[in-house]
Batch of 4 targets.
Target 1
Amino acid sequence: MDHLTAKQRSWNMSRIRGTDTKPEILVRSMLHRAGYRFRKNVKTLPGKPDIVLPKYRTVIFVHGCFWHRHKGCKRAATPSTNVEFWQKKFAANVANDKKHARDLRKLGWKVITVWECQLKNTDRVFRSLEKMLSA
C-alpha cells in the first residue's frame, strides 16, 4: 500500500523533471568539457532528444531506468500499487522510445541511449560516447 495520500503522491509526482535531470546534466557536462557542442531538447526532432550533436548527426537520449524500463536493472521495479496503470504507462513509454528511435534513424540520425544506472561509471560512459561519435 502507498503510505502517502493521493494529494501527497500527486505533489511528489509533479516534482519529477522531464528535462534537465541530473543524469542529463552529467552527460552534457562530460561532452562540453571534451569540446563537443550540442543543442538540447530539439523540439523539431522526433522524441525531442535530450542532446543533439548536429556535427555528428547524432542524438543522445538519457533515460531513467524506472521510467523507460531498463531491462535487468533493479531500478526498473514496478510499483506494487495500481499495477495495471503502471504497466500501461511503462509500455507506452517503451513503445514511444522505439518509435522515436526508428523515426530518427529514418531521418539519418545516429541514436545513442545512455541509461541512468550506467552513469555510476562516468569514465566508461564517456569513452563509449567518444567511440560512437568517432565511428
Note: Strands lie at 39-40, 51-53, 58-63, 110-115.
Target 2
Amino acid sequence: MNRMRLVVNNATRRLGAMFPGFFPDAKHDHYKDFGYPAALTFSQLYGMYSRNGIAQAGVNKTVLKTWQDNPFLLEEERDGSEVGEADETTLEKQIRQRFDDLRLWQKLAEADSMSMVGAYAGVILRFADSKRLDQPVDRVTGGLNGLVEIIPAWEGQLTVSQWDTDETSDGYGHPKMYQFNEAAVDDKQQPRNFIVHPDRVVIWSKNGTVHGKSILEAGFNDLLTMEKVSGAGGEGFWKNAKSAPVLEVDPEAKLTEMARMMGVPVEELVDKMNDQVEDWQKGFDKLLMVQGMEAKTLGITLPSPEHFFAIALQAFAASINMPVKILVGMQTGERASKEDADEWALTNMSRRTNYVIPNIRALVQRLVRVGILPERDWFVDWTDLTESSMSEKIDRASKMAETNQKMGTGVIVFTDEEIRAVVGYEPLSDAEKFANEPTDDETRDALGTKPKDTVE
C-alpha cells in the first residue's frame, strides 16, 4: 500500500512538472513561470530605474517631496516651527554659506535617491588634510574650509573591498576599506577609481549600513509586468497595423516562371519571397509584388491593456506607499485628492524623521569628530510638510471670524490672538492694536470741546 502511494505521488509530481496548474499538490516556481528574476542585483534595479518611467517617478517624486526645501543646521534647538536666515547665529550663517558653496544639501538629496535604488548609497568626504583617501582621518585644520568636496556614490560604484574580521576589534563585522569605481555606473571620460578609508565615507541607508534594501525591490515584479503589458500592447498594435501577409499559391502558378522573373533559381524562390515581404513590412508605403499568389492579412483582436496595466500600477504604488494619482500625475483630468496629498505629506515627514535626518546627523557627527564643525548640540531644523498653505490658513481664519459674527454681540468664540495664530502671525502689541485710534486731542477737536488758549 505504501509502495503504491509512493508511486502515485512520484507520478503526480512528474505530471505536475509537465502540466503546471493541473495538479494542486504540485509545487510551482511562480517567478520562473512568470519570468521574474529569483534574486535581484543592483544592475537590474539600476536598469529598471534608468529605463522605466514609473520606477523613476516613484524614486524621484519621493526625493523631491522629502527635499522640498533645504534644512537648517542649528547650534541648538530653538522655539518656533521655522527658523529663517534672519534668526541665524554667526556660526550658523557661516555653515549655511559653506554648505551652499559645496552644494551639500543637493549632494545629499542625490545620495538619498541613489540609496532608494540600491541597498545603500555612499557619501564620500574629501578633506584638506594632505592625506591619501585610503588613510584614516585624525584632525582636519581650517574649520569649514577643511571640507573640500562631497561625492555621492551608487551602491555599484562603492563596494566593500575589505571587512574587519578581528573579533577583538571595535569595528568587527564592519567594512575596513571601500573601493570606489566611478565608471561602474557612470562611464565618464576620466572616471575616478580609488581605495577609500571608512573615515571618509558615510553610508546612506535606512540602518546606516550596507545591508539595506532598495525601495524598488518589493514592486520589481509589478514593474516588469507593466513593461510586458505596455510592450506587448505596443508591439501588438504595430503588428496588427502592419501584419505579415499570408500568401496563397494559385494552383495554376508556374514557380519556374516566377523564379525566372525574380532572377533566382527555383530553390531560392522562398528566400526571395521572404526578403520581399520583409522589405514590405518595413514601411506603410511599400508595394508588395506577387505573381500567381494572393496576399492576405490575419486580423488580430487585441484586448485593452489599460486594465492589466492598472493592476500592476496599483500594486507598485502600494509597495512604495505612494498614492497612484501622485505617482502618475493627472489622468483623465483628475487630480490627487486632498486626502491623498495629506497622506503623501505625512509619509514623507515620517521618512524625513526615520530615514533622512539620522543620516544627516551621522554626517554632522563625522564632521565634528574630524574638526570641521565645533562640538555643539547640533539640531536639524526642517519646515513641516504637513503645514497648511497660506490660502488654507486664511480660509480657516475667515471661518473663525464668521463664527464670531454669527454668535451675536457679546459672545466671542475665537479671540483676535487665536485668529492671528492660525495664519502664523504673532499677537499684536497694545501700541499696534490702538495705532489707528484717535488721540485725546483729536477726539476733543472732533467734539469741539477742546479748551481755548487764554491770554492775560
Note: The first strand starts at residue 72 and ends at 74.
Target 3
Amino acid sequence: MRDFDTLVEALQSLKAEGYQYDFNLISDGLHCKELDLMVGADDFVVEEIHRFEGDSDPADNSILYVLSTSKGVKGTMVDAYGTYSGEIDPVVLQKLKVAK
C-alpha cells in the first residue's frame, strides 16, 4: 500500500490517478454532489484506505477511502475515524468498517 505523509498529498496524488470525485456518506449509501450520483453498498468498492493523524489535536484524525463505483466513477471520501452520525445503512457501515 502507498504511504502518504498528508491528506492533501494523498488527495492530489489520487486525483492525478483519476480519483477525481468527492463522495459523502448519506443515510443509504454514498453521494457525489458534483455528479448528483447516489450509490448503495452493492454499487461501490473500497480500493484503499489511508489514516491521517493530526500532530497536536486528536480531533484532526481522519480516514481517506479510495472508492470506485459499479458505473466506473472513481473518487474519495474523507471522514473522521469511524465517527458516523445519524441513521446510516448498516450494510454501508459494515462495508466501510471491513475496509479499515
Note: The mean pLDDT is 85.
Target 4
Amino acid sequence: MKTLTALFATAALALSANVALAKDVQPDEVVKLVQSKQIQSLDELKQKALAKHPGATVKDSELENEYGRYIYKVELRDAQNVEWDVDMDAKTGEILKDAQDH
C-alpha cells in the first residue's frame, strides 16, 4: 500500500511540475521579447489569427512560455457566433492549432 501511495505522490508532483512549465508572459517581458525580435508583435500575430476567420472578433489572447517556446493563444468568435482557439508560434507566426472551441 505504501508503494501505491508513493507512486501517486510522485505522479502528482510530476503533473504540477509540467503545469509550472507553461506560464503566462507578463506585459513588460512581452515588450522586451518583441524589441529583441524573439517574437513577432502581438498585433501581427492577432491579425494572422483573424485572417483564418474573416469577420471574427478577438475575445481573449495570451502569450505563454511553454517549455521555452513562446505560444500566442487567441480566442475568436466568428460571424456565426462560433468560438475558435488559434495557437501560434510567437516567433515564426506558424499556426499550431486552429480548432473550434467546445
Note: The chain has one domain: 23-100.
